[in-house]
Write a structure and sequence with these properties.
The complex is a heterodimer of chains A (298) and B (324).
Chain A lengths: L9 E4 L4 E5 L6 H17 L4 E7 L2 E6 L6 H16 L5 E13 L2 H13 L6 H8 L5 H10 L2 E6 L6 E5 L22 E5 L2 E4 L9 E5 L27 E6 L2 H13 L6 E8 H21 L1
Parallel strand pairs in A: 5-11
Antiparallel strand pairs in A: 1-2, 2-4, 3-4, 5-10, 5-12, 6-7, 6-11, 7-9, 8-9, 8-10
Helix pairs in contact in A: 1-2
Chain B lengths: L1 E5 L5 E3 L20 H10 L8 E5 L4 E4 L3 E7 L5 E2 L2 E2 L6 E3 L4 E3 L8 E6 L33 E2 L10 E2 L12 E7 L8 H9 L2 E3 L8 E4 L7 H4 L11 E6 L4 E5 L2 E4 L7 E4 L3 E3 L4 H5 L6 E6 L2 H14 L6 E2 L3
Parallel strand pairs in B: 13-21
Antiparallel strand pairs in B: 1-4, 1-11, 2-3, 3-10, 4-9, 5-8, 5-10, 6-7, 6-9, 12-22, 13-20, 14-15, 14-21, 15-18, 16-19, 17-18, 17-20
Classes of the chains: A alpha+beta (298), B alpha+beta (324).
Chain lengths: 298, 324
């Protein structure tokens, strides 16, 4: 049973131009929504000198111009906003749902992993390994679990447009070690899992997550041609977005890939919803109780 | 137009302060690593301090100028020659249409800056002309200079020849000493670990570049905080739940400190126990692979003052007129 935690945010110094508001030491939806809410309120204040806000899981990085706003004034503002947020009855976020087509166990990420195995270090077939370390029956069980839940984008970054997501359904939680040493390159569109998170690689970047599939949908587009789900940004995802992975085969993968190349592919927002923390925590408690029940029965 | 005859090792178009406002979608600011030298080069040619210019890394390009103009070179000593004749750095230099500038190899320091009157006038991408080569953003087609390219230049303006006084030109042969502030994760190192980082002798490794400055040096040790954490933080003591990174963060990736420069990652799952003061980051831009580097701990007040001094140095007040 998850007990709602009280946020005890700490303001951490990060040089002379940044602070980090750290909400917790453990990951949770509650703390991520606190971070999103604080970011929104700081943005609304429109205080001169605030340059960038980066919510990421259970923290918020604030980049500010020290010649226009002092650390003291910034900390006072955050303190005041945090007290306002604490007083709220519920936290809500306008969360769009985006459907991402994914070819699980695809040949392209397999080739990428084999390249690593040849050149860097021996490594098992990634979906097989991920299924095994999580006590799943086989890769089909892994793919079913991964696509059964919505995934919540806890933050975007490390590389342009790269999302880090957590599963909303606790029954789909995984725990996956990372590559050591990391890969030098990852196939564009690769869907990877690491720690308890899922990521999608926007282009050929280094990386450490285990690869379980690939999407033909662009998630980073400087040309801004890939559809309304991008919301006029060059990057598809924002923190607080929800993602559902829709399983496709190689034929459909190639069909979508051709449409992207022809400029006719457009990613839409599947659904817009007011996501309520209270409703989610209540639902989550039920799911976790049934998980414990299953374990007791076994 | 400036014609690129040879491109140099990795020469890129940068402006200052770069592409600010996109950290939360993973796009770094880019811009010049030695921002002080860059800004002075612009001021020496009558541009505003942030106009687009070239960052030269170790080995410089050879360029032909399409019109009469004024240029200035600052930063690492690169023994520039105009039509075969040496020209001074840190000073406004007049150039005639058709002349060829050959920029050599940096002897001390690592990065030099070339600015031209009018500024480089490529199409901005997301509000900046700065180049982020790793993701193909900005510059010309997202990449470093290539032989055969023609760089567009903005309209000419009037220029009064000026110079940085010799005694104010920075000595780039000295060991780099970086002022750092404690945090955000200084409590993750134990006292021995903090002492090792702050008082140890570090060597800049060969793989260092605009995306990360990797250091070799003493082993670091961690406090109980680094071990007493929930599983989703990760198993290594330097692992933390993914969090935003400050530019200048001294990132501990496994046991290796990696200082995060202007093309570094915006977030990740490794701690930053200390952060380089923003007014000291220019020194990182001049640190050569294989060279020594040390840290010195400063307070927030010291760091704010250091930044003010740095900004003052990179302004008109530093320059003195020269006669033609």
């Amino acid at each position: 049973m998850t007990t709602p935690e009280r946020a005890e945010p700490r303001i951490l110094s990060a040089g002379d131009r940044y602070i980090i508001v750290e909400f917790a030491r453990a990951n949770s939806m509650r703390m991520n929504m606190y971070a999103l809410e604080l970011a929104r309120r700081i943005d609304e204040e429109a205080r001169d000198g605030i340059l960038e806000l980066l919510p990421m899981f259970v923290s918020l990085l604030v980049h500010y111009d020290a010649s226009r706003v002092s650390r003291e004034a910034l900390e006072d503002m955050c303190g005041s906003l945090l007290r306002d947020i604490e007083a709220l009855d519920d936290l809500e976020h306008q969360s769009p749902l985006i459907e991402i087509p994914v070819c699980y166990g695809d040949p392209w990420t397999r080739a990428c992993v084999e390249d690593y195995a040849r050149k860097i270090a021996p490594i098992e077939d990634n979906p097989t390994y991920v299924a095994a370390v999580n006590g799943l029956r086989d890769v089909e069980h892994l793919f079913a679990l991964h696509s059964a839940t919505e995934h919540w984008v806890g933050g975007v970054g490390f590389w342009p447009g790269l999302p880090d997501m957590m599963p909303l359904d606790p029954r789909s939680r995984l725990s996956v070690p990372k590559y050591d040493p990391p890969r030098i390159w990852t196939e564009t569109g690769a869907v990877g899992v690491g720690g308890g998170f899922t990521s999608i690689y926007p282009m050929r970047t280094p990386g450490g997550y285990h690869l379980i599939g690939r999407t033909p949908a662009p998630i980073y587009d400087l040309q801004r041609r890939s559809g309304p789900a991008f919301r006029d940004s060059v990057v598809l995802f924002r923190p607080g977005d929800r993602v559902r992975f829709r399983r496709i085969g190689i034929d459909e993968f190639e069909h979508i890939e051709n449409a992207v190349a022809a400029g006719t592919f457009a990613l839409e927002i599947a659904e817009q919803r007011t996501f309520s923390l209270r409703e989610y925590e209540s639902w989550l408690a039920e799911q976790e109780a049934s998980l414990v029940g299953d374990q007791q029965r076994d | 137009m400036i014609e690129v005859i040879t491109a140099g090792l990795e020469t890129t178009i940068q402006d200052y302060p770069g592409r600010v406002g996109y950290w939360n979608i993973g796009i770094p600011p880019s811009g010049p690593l030695d921002d002080r030298s860059f800004r002075l080069a612009n001021l020496l040619v009558g541009n505003h301090a942030g106009a687009a210019g070239l960052e030269i890394q170790l080995v410089g390009p050879t360029l032909r100028f399409g019109r009469d103009t004024s240029i200035a070179l600052t930063g690492a000593e690169v023994r520039p020659k105009l039509d075969g004749e040496p020209i001074p750095m840190w000073q406004t230099v007049a150039v005639r249409a058709g002349q060829v500038l050959k920029i050599g190899t940096a002897r001390t320091g690592l990065r030099a800056y070339l600015c031209v009157n009018g500024g480089i006038a490529t199409e901005p991408v997301l509000g900046s002309r700065s180049t982020f080569v790793r993701a193909g953003i900005g510059g010309i087609d997202g990449g470093a200079l290539v032989a055969g390219q023609h760089l567009p230049i903005g309209p000419p303006t009037s220029v009064s020849p000026q110079a940085v006084p010799r005694d104010l030109v920075p000595d780039l042969s000295a060991t780099v000493k970086l002022e750092v502030l404690a945090g955000p994760h200084d409590d993750w190192l134990d006292e021995d670990g903090r002492n090792a980082l702050l008082h140890g002798e570090w060597t800049v490794q060969a793989q260092s570049d605009r995306t990360g400055y990797r250091l070799a040096g003493p082993p670091l040790s961690f406090s109980p905080r680094a071990y007493d954490k929930t599983p989703e933080n990760g198993v290594d003591p330097s692992n933390v739940i993914n969090t935003g990174y400050p530019i200048g963060g001294v990132n501990i990736c496994g046991g290796t400190p990696i200082i995060l420069p202007v093309d570094g990652p915006s977030e990740g799952g490794f701690i930053n126990p200390f952060t380089v003061a923003s007014g000291a980051l220019w020194k990182l831009g001049q640190a050569r692979p294989g060279s020594s580097l040390r840290f010195t701990l400063v307070s927030l007040g010291d760091a704010v003052q250091l930044r003010q001094e740095s900004d003052r140095f990179a302004s008109e007040g530093t320059l003195e007129p020269v006669s033609r």
